[in-house]
């Protein structure tokens, strides 16, 4: 099995569904409330575990009830949580308002994620024992840089999802093997709205890029080669939440198994297409048997 370390966030998503989102100073009565385990790190960990990876989660939850639920959820998905610390104080939370048009507004409070500013010897050892390290940008940048550097120095392949998009320092990009932005993140990072143009700019900083393009599929580009567009399976999408995280988790598993890039992208696209056909994020992530059967 592919050993994958995920260095990233764990959040409880607190979702309010309402016909219309409130304006400033306004109160509205909503329809429904749901708590859903989330955080890009935890979502990628669940996706990779279900896709057939042996996954260790590095990060932190709080010492509140959400922390227990988040840890249990990861363990239930088969993710190793020995390096998911329990920090004093609240877990990370995302406060999400979804209106009837499907538009959302989100406040993220990092909570315990914010205390992960540096890595200890246990985390460094776990990264060194992995074939791949998955990272996003929902932990303090200092920890992400340290993880990327540790992975590189041990020959561990590094994959970064640059979300939420922000200017990235060279000390991070210099240690990234594969960057996987969505279309918006690629545009923001490169200053180029067109994906081929964005890929060319990003390849100055990292050797390989996959720009995910929603229902259009993804654009793969590597230094010295022509960019290639991989179409997504045509499916009836009901909820695209978590599609990107499902894609990256499955991609990591397939790459870790040594599959050629085209095959790994097909596996990732199949996994993400299954995710969008069901409501929810981590609950709709497919198992390996479903991906292979699709
Ligand atoms: P994110 O969820 O990070 O915004 P995207 O929207 O680009 O990322 O979706 C990630 C991947 O999920 C796409 O590259 C594609 O493979 C798959 N995907 C997303 N939306 C659809 C869809 N409507 N139909 C089929 N596949 C989809
Ligand atoms: Na979904």
Automatic annotation (TrEMBL):
Listed InterPro entries: Carboh/pur_kinase_PfkB_CS, PfkB_dom, Ribo/fructo_kinase, Ribokinase, Ribokinase-like
Keyword set, alphabetical order: ATP-binding, Carbohydrate metabolism, Cytoplasm, Kinase, Magnesium, Metal-binding, Nucleotide-binding, Potassium, Transferase
Domain of life per record: Bacteria
Subcellular location: Cytoplasm
Reaction catalysed by this enzyme: D-ribose + ATP = D-ribose 5-phosphate + ADP + H(+)
UniProt xrefs under PROSITE patterns: PFKB_KINASES_2
Active site: 245
Enzyme Commission code(s) on record: 2.7.1.15
Keyword Transferase: yes
UniProt cofactor(s): Mg(2+)
Record comment: activity regulation: Activated by a monovalent cation that binds near, but not in, the active site. The most likely occupant of the site in vivo is potassium. Ion binding induces a conformational change that may alter substrate affinity.
Any one GO MF annotation of this record: ribokinase activity
EC class of the enzyme, as a word: transferase
Pathway involvement of the protein, from the record: Carbohydrate metabolism; D-ribose degradation; D-ribose 5-phosphate from beta-D-ribopyranose: step 2/2
Chain ranges of the Carbohydrate kinase PfkB domain: 1-286
Co-factor: note: Requires a divalent cation, most likely magnesium in vivo, as an electrophilic catalyst to aid phosphoryl group transfer. It is the chelate of the metal and the nucleotide that is the actual substrate.
Binding site for K(+): 239, 241, 275, 278, 280, 284
Binding-site list for ATP: 182, 212-217, 244-245
Residues that, per the record, bind substrate: 11-13, 39-43, 138, 245
NCBIfam families per the UniProt record, alphabetical: D_ribokin_bact
Stated role: Catalyzes the phosphorylation of ribose at O-5 in a reaction requiring ATP and magnesium. The resulting D-ribose-5-phosphate can then be used either for sythesis of nucleotides, histidine, and tryptophan, or as a component of the pentose phosphate pathway.
Quaternary context: Homodimer.
The family this protein is said to belong to: Belongs to the carbohydrate kinase pfkB family. Belongs to the carbohydrate kinase PfkB family. Ribokinase subfamily.
Protein name: Ribokinase
Species assigned in the record: Streptomyces anulatus (Streptomyces chrysomallus)
